[in-house]
Each structure stands twice: as structure tokens, then as C-alpha cells.
User: Fold this.
Amino acid sequence: MINIVLFGPPGAGKGTQAEKLKQHFDLIHLSTGDIFRANIKGQTELGNLAKSYIDKGQLVPDEVTIDLLKSEMDKYPDTKGFIFDGFPRTTAQAEALDKMLAEKGEKVDVMVALEVPEEELKKRLMARAEVSGRTDDADPEIIQNRINVYKKETAPVKDYYAGKGKYVGINGVGSIDEIFNKLVEEINKHI
Ligand code: AMP
Assistant:
């Protein structure tokens, strides 16, 4: 199996690149943010719970998120592998992912991180709000909160993978194709 963690702050371009990588490597794209939004739209119990956190720019609790990811992964027993987008966002989630994969005799091959300066992220998120309809993109205060949560709770996940020699940082400013080519080059070194 090929298991890639696509990492980076909100607005770094993870969703865009994940779609391209999924096609290139023939993998399943798992975005916890997308799954939460589908549940919000469907007004499920999980959706209602997730919304109360997402609307404030906070993380959905680990327990809920980890259970959700596990049940999503179980839907694809025969896949060649996964691109994890927006997960793991805490060290506890990273540890849980390793455990879930180890139970299948698998592992994370590499974490590729898109690095984008904070001012550029804010600009991109405000622009995305115009087309995405995402309420968490529209409000500067919520955007700032998401960036702060990223720095405090999510950035340490880098160290988790760096400690295992699996972290690769990539400049996330440039054309979509330029960044995609760099991602493919780095991923190929690890799979
Ligand atoms: P995203 O689409 O990845 O930007 O995620 C949107 C929102 O969903 C985040 O701001 C969090 O509130 C929530 N979320 C997505 N993935 C996770 C995760 N792995 N852990 C906790 N909360 C998450």
C-alpha cells in the first residue's frame, strides 16, 4: 500500500493537490474536513457535533475524528492506498493512524507538507470564501483562530514524522502544476 499524509495550514492548497495526487497514484483521497462537511449538509448527528467546532475554527475532538477516519478507511479494503488530507491534525491522531495502519501490516510512507506564509494563507482563504460558501472561510476572526490552532496543535505533528525521517517540506507558493510536480518527485523517493 501507499499511504501519503498531505500536510499544511488551512489554505495551503491541500485539497487541490490531493485531487491531482489521487489520480496520479490511483489512491483514495480521505479528507476529514470534506467528510464533516458532507455530514453537516446531511444534518447527521456527527454533522451537528462537528459544526459546533468547525464554526468556531476549533478542532473536532480526537476521539470523534479518529473513529470517523477508521470507519472511512474500512470502506476501502482493496485500495492501493490513501492520501490523508487534513488528518492527522494532532499528535494523538498521528499515533492512532500508525496503530490503525499497523493492524493492517501497513505504515505511513511520507508526510509532504505545503509551506505557505501566513499573509498569503489569509488572502487565499478570503478569496476561497467567495466560491466555497464555507462559513469558516468568510470571517477573518475564524480564519485567525484556525491558523492559531494549526500552529499550536497541528504543527507538532511535523516533528512526529520528522523524528521518523518521513517529513518533507515543499514550497506551496507557485503554480498548481509546479507544486504538483515537486510533490510527485518527493513522494516517489519514499514509496
Ligand atoms: P479542512 O477542510 O481540512 O480545512 O477542515 C475544516 C474543519 O474541520 C477544521 O477547521 C476542523 O474544525 C475540522 N477538522 C477537519 N479535519 C480535522 C481533524 N483531523 N481533526 C479535528 N478537526 C478536524
Q: What stands out?
A: The CA atoms of residues 31 and 125 lie 17 Å apart. DSSP finds ten helices and five strands in the chain. The two ends are 9 Å apart (CA to CA). The chain has a mean pLDDT of 97.
